[in-house]
Amino acid sequence: MEENPGILQVHEVSKSFRRKQILHRISFQMKRGEICSIVGENGSGKTTLLRVIVGMLRADEGSVKLSGKMGYCPQECQLFNSLTVRENLIYFATAYGLSTKQRSWWRHVQPMLDEFNLLKDLGTRVSRLSGGSRQKLNFLVALLHAPDLLLLDEPYAAFDWESYLRFWELVNKLKVKGTAILIVSHLIFERDQIDTIFQLREGKFT
Amino acid sequence: MRGRFIWIASLMTLRELFRRRIVILLVVLIPSVFYLVTVLTTNMAPIPFQLAAVQGEPSLMVPARYIGLVFMGLASTGLLAAFLSMNLIQWDFHVTRRLIVCGYRPSEVSLSKLSVMLVLIILVGFYVGCMLRLFFQPDDFLSVIFGFILAGFVYGSYGLLIGSLLRGELEGILLITLLANIDIGWLQNPIFYSGSLNKALIRVLPAFYPSQMSNISAFSEFGIGKAFSGSLLYGTVLLMAAMLIFWLRMKRK
User: What does DSSP assign to residue B184?
Assistant: First the structure.
């Protein structure tokens, strides 16, 4: 029996838009508790690859196999701006199939909100939050259902230094719990925190 | 289909919509301005109006102010319903896609949008209808309101279709304003285009049946069956097309 089973298998994935090839036979896999990063210049195909893994785009060729729950944090804050922080959390928790009436859900969410200093903003509309707070909420939404695989697209672009440090603390806690984390970014400062770095150039791993 | 998912999505969509200042502003301003301008610019001289959705297509002589007010009520309801419905789709389109990635089904999101649209057109139709009562007493007030609601249904479905087809808000507003103006504002309205009464073109435009229904109810005792079924059929066809396109866009590409 395998000790650490693969949680994500990307096999020979290709994707093109009109006639332009964006991804060219990309393959890699991830295991529980592993932190991987895909780096590359703007336009190298990072976000497209992530969208194929998430299921927002269909691959022209190849396959993506995922075992377990997935959490996805997009690059831009994709939140309902006219709703409050609490309402956004309830809305996304419903999408994950969580019962927001159960106290266990709140016990799971509260420490994370506290860690990112968002508890005081529960009743605040997202449009009135600072850019950094929005980015933190954007990230927390991806964690609501305690995913086995976390896919992060440029997750800390708008974080201040404090939040950036807390982000890595949280990422390491999740790693210890066995969550696999894939970070897509054009810049990686914390090389020592990452198990594997894939470099994407013109749709291919180099 | 999961009822709780649809209920939460509908509730959140409604909250989101009514927290936008522009929505409140439009709901207050459009009918008030339209009615006020009509009262200030029309007189009580009788003008002919053909009840084309009644057997024999009889004509009535109706005071210009009253018929103008009914048409401005229809125009207000149609415009508001179309604009709000379009925005149900366009606003937060990418966030809605994220919801689907997180576990919502496209059909659940579509149904929640549809239920919010129905609530909106009933509210707007009733509200605009009640404002009409401040200016005159139609023969069958409830049926006039029902005609407004059907105008909202037809134009709301058109708004959903525009929202599903176009990404740009400005282009959407242009198409809605263009059709609503030409259709309810000018061609169906005998105050502006009395010559269009006999033209076949006006019978294929979206406001034909709802405007017939409201006018039959406001100024006569003729039956409204044909106008009612015509409105419902027109709105349903637009709605089905809108829902299909929205569902296809929400699916992965």
Answer: I
Whether A46 and A184 have beta carbons less than 8 Å apart is answered as yes
pLDDT tens across B80-135, in order? 999 999 999 999 999 999 999 999 999 999 999 999 999 999 999 999 999 999 99
- The two tokens of residue B211 are 């405007």
Alpha carbon distance A63, A149 (integer Å)? 17
pLDDT in tens, A163-202: 888 888 889 999 999 999 999 987 777 778 899 999 999 8
Determine whether the interchain pair A56/B101 forms a contact, defined as Cβ–Cβ distance below 8 Å. Answer: yes
Interface residues on A facing B, Cβ-Cβ cutoff 8 A: 54-58, 72, 74, 76, 78-83, 87, 90-92, 94-97, 125, 141
d(Cα A164, Cα A63) in Å, to the nearest integer?
33
Residues of B in contact with A79 (CB under 8 A): 95
Nearest to B92 among A76, A80, A87 (CB): A80
Determine the distance in angstroms separating the CA of B248 from the nearest CA of chain A, rounded to an integer.
12
Residue B90 CB partners (closer than 8 Å, separation 6+): B163, B166, B167, B169, B172
Side chain identity at residue B221, one-letter code: E
**What does the pLDDT look like over B176-193, one tens digit per residue?**
999 998 888 888 887 776
Its pTM stands at 0.87
Q: What angle do CA A19, A24, A26 make, to 5 degrees?
A: 150
The residues pairing with A23 across neighbouring beta strands, listed in sequence order, are A15
